[in-house]
Amino acid sequence: MIKMQKNRNLLWVGVIGLLLLTSMLACQSTVPDLAPASVEQPAQVIVVSTEQVDTSAPPILIDPTDQEDALVALYKRANPAVVNITVYTNSSGLLIAEGQGSGFVYDDQGHIVTNAHVIHGAEQMEVTFPDSTTRNATLVGEDLNSDLAVVKIENLPAEIQPLTLGNIDSLAVGQTVVAIGNPFGLEGTLTRGVISALGRSIPALTPFSIPQSIQTDAAINPGNSGGPLLNMAGEVIGVNAQIETGGTGRSNLGVGFAIPVSIMRMVIPDLIQNGEHEWAWLGVRGGNLNPTLVQAMGLPVEKGAYLVEVIAGGPSAQAGLQGANDTTTLDGRQVDIGGDIITAVNGQAINSFDDLLIYIALEAGPGKEITLTIWRDGTSQDVNVTLEKRPATLDTTTSPD
């Protein structure tokens, strides 16, 4: 479980992903605890995009105005491809069932997508289909930075059709969505809701975070982890991963989160091909520019990504970017001042810290050079930064001082 809480008093949000606290992973896995994400993180980025080979069936064509018939048709098409994943770990020389989650068939080669936190540390895995057909599964690759994993089975049942991936650009708040999975081990459960918000940042299983995540009020509970979040065309728009608990229990309170299809499209092909996915790293901490900072620093701009800290030894430090170097008090509030303000990347406007990170996530990768337009000391200038591969931990880049 990952516990988090939102601090509304900070003038900057630290790295992408500390916006939400007191949430938990939506699985029933009791595999060894993973690194908590309730620590302030460095700015991060994501990777090189890879084309997906679409071997799946076309999306369902149904009339969304007829909700009941639409849901029945959607479930009939999608549920056969949604699986229950049981993980086994070693206990005193014996393999015992240690956790359970969900997943879905990704292609006709037997690849199944799930959450990394569902299968992390498993000695063995079993995949069970809705008709009780069971297959042993092997790990293909996992990415703790996105909480995504791929396992594979041999002899995919002939009647199973892989689910189709949707497009994040087609999503809108208020849109009806459906989650299918195995909450509390109750296989083949469908719940319906809407997209409550887009562009959320949620904790990963590392000191970094997952951008562009989808918030939904469709009921997601322990055991739903790794299952698909679907639009009404039956397309996968996210992988159900976390729920907000308010720190009072383990059940759904109407606030759940799914890893977005945009991240899936980048990470999953790499896991299948290489067993891993490389994320780029900018090496900063920061937040959104706000009126208090604008007034305190006498800035000529009102929007941008404000750098509070530049991580020693990281790409931004090597390029000469600067974080806050002083503090002042304004209207009784202490403000960190003196940091660079990023207003554009490669000529594209940056209005917030998330804009910066999402741009790098979708457009760049390790080794790529980007041009940041910054405001410093009342003037605008361009700074070239060569991105690096995201470190496994911060210890390798953060000075002991």
Structural class: mainly beta
The proportion of residues forming helix, as a percent range, comes to 10-25%
Count of DSSP-assigned helices: 6
Cα-to-Cα separation, first versus last residue: 31 Å
- Count every beta strand, where a strand is a DSSP E run of 2 or more residues: 23
Tell me, rounded to a whole number, the average pLDDT.
83
CATH class of the largest domain: Mainly Beta
Number of domain units:
2
- What can be said about the biggest beta sheet? 6 strands, antiparallel, barrel
Radius of gyration: 22 Å
- CATH-assigned fold name of the largest domain: Thrombin, subunit H
Please provide a written account of the structure.
50% of the residues are buried. A hairpin with a 2-residue loop joins β21 and β22. With 401 residues, this protein is mainly β. It folds into 2 domains: 252 residues, Thrombin, subunit H (Beta Barrel), CATH 2.40.10; 110 residues, Pdz3 Domain, CATH 2.30.42.10. The N terminus and C terminus are likely disordered. The radius of gyration is 22 Å and the shape is elongated. The two termini are 31 Å apart.
Which keywords apply here?
six-stranded antiparallel barrel, single chain, Thrombin, subunit H, mainly beta, 2 domains, 401 residues, 6 helices, Pdz3 Domain, disordered N terminus, six-stranded antiparallel beta barrel
In short:
This protein is mainly beta and 401 residues long. The chain contains 6 helices and 23 strands.
List the helices and strands and how they pair.
Blueprint: E1 23-25, H1 67-78, E2 82-91, E3 94-105, E4 111-114, H2 116-119, E5 124-128, E6 134-143, E7 148-153, E8 176-181, E9 189-203, E10 209-216, E11 228-230, E12 236-244, E13 256-260, H3 261-274, E14 280-281, E15 284-288, H4 291-297, E16 305-310, H5 315-319, E17 326-330, E18 333-337, E19 341-345, E20 348-349, H6 353-363, E21 369-376, E22 379-386, E23 388-389
